[in-house]
Amino acid sequence: MPATAPNIENRTCGTCTLCCRLPDIDHFDKPANALCSHCIEGQGCSIYANRPSLCRDFLCLWRTDDSLPPEWDPTISKMMIYEQGPQITVLADPDHPEIWRSEPYRSQLESWAAKAEPSGGYVIVFCGEEVFKI
């Protein structure tokens, strides 16, 4: 399982807004797979400087794990990934529902799941209304 670290300097959000669209965010009454009212698609958060701590504290695995190769950039992989204790959570863009099943993603997700299993961890993938445990 990847280690969580501070954000990597050369990895920025860029034009990615998956964390503003894919998860449900109770603080904003935002359902999953709907763009946050504070997000400008392709640009980012319009309240970035004053965003709430739940947004400020979010650690995208792409931004914190420098072992992930370029194809894991969320703008390429169409997935946002983060750790929750022993669990790795994957939110796959429902506009690209099969991408997490393709290579190189599937084998990496299976590898993370195998490493996490002895300690009770796993990988869980959410894609639209579907949930898959690896």
Question: Could you characterize what this model shows?
Answer:
The chain is α+β, with helices and mostly antiparallel strands. It folds into two domains: 44 residues, no CATH class; 76 residues, no CATH class. It is 21% helix and 19% strand. A four-stranded mixed beta sheet has the order 3-4-5-6. A hairpin with a 2-residue loop joins strand 3 and strand 4. The longest helix is centred in the C-terminal third of the chain and has 12 residues. 24% of the residues are buried.
Per-chain topology:
Layout: H1 18-21, E1 39-40, E2 44-45, H2 53-56, H3 61-64, H4 74-77, E3 79-84, E4 87-92, H5 105-116, E5 122-127, E6 130-133
Parallel strand pairs: 4-5
Antiparallel strand pairs: 1-2, 3-4, 5-6
Characterize this entry briefly:
This protein is α+β, with helices and mostly antiparallel strands.
Descriptive tags:
134 residues, alpha+beta, four-stranded mixed beta sheet, two-stranded antiparallel ribbon, 6 strands, Zinc/iron-chelating domain-containing protein, UPF0153_domain
